[in-house]
Design brief:
disordered N terminus; 4 helices; three-stranded antiparallel beta sheet; endopeptidase fold (from Nostoc punctiforme); six-stranded antiparallel beta sheet; 17% helix; single chain; alpha+beta
Length: 192
């Protein structure tokens, strides 16, 4: 029998923000199953295989940022749903990222916090389409990544596509404004 993953590691597998109603079951080193019960109490099952480690690179295969963003834009308007990667129901922020990258068979972490130590950090002013932008959750005092998106442009303003539980309550493109700058953590480049 394989050893269980400690509870503190399981928290990293959760999506954008953790809920006190989450429970973990059937967990081994290779596979983690998280049961999350959102407000409607419908169980959502998320399988994660081989968690990412700090400093690890994401294999983007032969996909380029334009292809990735073209597909991501097809999801605009899909509603926000905590802990979901199902476009028929909705996405949370990292669920949206997971869905878009998995469309191209690119493996990425399921949780926004797991992107913290991946890849190469770049200055905000040097962002390019396809870079990932990381923010704290809605509590900006907690300096832990809790939200993320994909940079769509860096022209007169920096814009990113993401699934938000805010005003849009869906997948949308947003400018990096004062609100997001207060929550800004960093940008990582995953495409060479």
């Amino acid at each position: 029998m394989k050893p269980l993953i400690p509870a503190f590691l399981m928290l990293q597998l959760l999506s954008c923000t953790a809920s006190s109603t989450d429970e973990v079951s059937a967990v081994s080193e290779e596979t983690a199953v998280i049961r999350s019960y959102p407000v409607d109490k419908a169980a959502i099952y998320i399988d994660t295989v081989q968690p990412f480690k700090g400093g690890q690179k994401i294999d983007t295969k032969n996909v380029n940022p334009a292809q990735l963003l073209n597909f991501a834009r097809t999801q605009i308007g899909v509603p926000y749903l905590y802990a979901s990667i199902d476009p028929a129901k909705g996405f949370d922020c990292s669920g949206f990222i997971t869905y878009v990258f998995h469309h191209f068979n690119i493996e990425v972490p399921r949780s926004s916090v797991d992107f913290t130590n991946l890849e190469t950090e770049i200055p905000l002013s040097s962002t390019a389409p396809g870079d990932l932008i990381l923010f704290t959750g809605t509590d900006s005092a907690a300096k832990v990544v809790g939200h993320m998106g994909i940079i769509t442009e860096n022209t007169d303003s920096i814009r990113f596509i993401h699934s938000t539980s805010g005003k849009a309550n869906s997948v949308t493109i947003t400018a990096v404004n004062n609100y997001y700058m207060k929550r800004f953590v960093k940008v990582i480049r995953i495409f060479d």
